[in-house]
Predict the 3D structure of the following.
Amino acid sequence: MNIKKRMRNMIVPVAMPVIVFLIFFICQPKRFGTPEGIKIMLQQSVINTIIGFGLSYNLLIDTWDFSAGAQMVLAGLIGAFYAQKMGLPGLIIITILVATILGTITGSIYFVFKIPSIIVTIGAMLIYESAGAMYHGGANVTIPTEICYLGKSPGIFVVGIVTYLLAYVIYHHTKFGYSVRSVGNGEDVAKNIGVNSLRVRFLCFIIGGIFVGIAGVLQVSYGGAIAPKSGMNTMGMVFPPFMGVFIGQYLEKYCDIMLGIFLGVFSMTMINSGLIAMGLPGTLQQVVTGTFMIVFMAISINREKAILQK
């Protein structure tokens, strides 16, 4: 690899978060970019990044999972309840186990009935939201303060790094990761080399559930409590991870896709925090964030088409 290419691969991935940071820091130097503010943005980014790791395997093969947010909330509610009796082990084991089971249920519905993933996962989201609203009488569930350290610094960053390594190994050094990349490059090609794309999609939901469970542990630990959500409110929880995966896919030509997912999520977190620092109302924040997503995807897709036409 020549020096010019190496420099490009170092600069391009960090360009987006750096540019976003500088824009908001210049506009609001007193309210944005403080050391404590950066720490909070990083903590929030870790949780969404881990969800992004779980969703990435599905998205890379054009399978959507809108139920991940509802899975995390329901698993978190159950895990938090058992944490009151079993402590941190109960929170970790039960949350990850429940999220994995929910991912398996969603994947099984998709695998058996072969319904489009968008329909399956939105339906599953509504079911999981309803279950969460009924669980424990629909009340918030809190955990003891002394077991919240995984959601604080440095615990949350340690978990984030370990989870990144797990996602990296699964994607690059396992048969499952090879199958995901094969299906992502074309189902006909994957079929010719003996990869069962439907089975791979089923496994993606299970693997995704594991990562969602880890994110659920951090989410509960970060706030010390978790509340049920209804009315499709959990759908909004998957959009930052979705955007992180899309940006990660774009950056994959310059760096590891899992690192790209983190950089994408961190950029989106800074945008949301920057808009709050500028005093914009919530509805306008959503407009700006949605516009950013559309513009980025349009540039990315059209750039790829232009490259293919040359």
